[in-house]
Amino acid sequence: MNKHGISCFRQEHPVDKFKMMSHLQKNNQRFFLFLILCIGVTASAFLTKPKPVMYIIGDSTVRNGTGKGGDGLWGWGSIIQDYFDTTRIHIENHAIGGRSSRTFLTEGRWEKILANLKEGDYVLMQFGHNDGGAINDTSRARGSIKGVGEEMVEIDNLLTKKHETVHSYGWYMKKIHQ
Question: What is the pTM of this model?
Fold first, then answer.
């Protein structure tokens, strides 16, 4: 009691306690629903398996120009996605006209794909069309040695102005396969 005889202790009304308890219960329910939702979203992220990628590599028979049919020129890699269920597999066409198995490797194009390649992915390749060209000249210098063995020749590439070891077509195919 204070000096005026009034009790300083406030007694809560039972309805106030009920409202407070009801409010706490609703907040707890919301918190637990939010927590369950967070756990579910996180779990589904770990359980959802990403779809595999099919990487396509090759020359102009696979992708001509930009791959959009300019001048009516198409490579089969530009339309292959029409034959697959792209909700189950992602298709990336990395082929480029004018490349051989040799230049696809020496230009670092295979390394870029290899850096992203995961278990379950696929690589579909077609080379050979340009591998029969000149090994060293000033216009294309993209040929490889005929054969599948360990044959090689050292050149000073007239086009790139770099020293290079040129291998057999089979050697380049094995290098991509490894």
Answer: 0.70
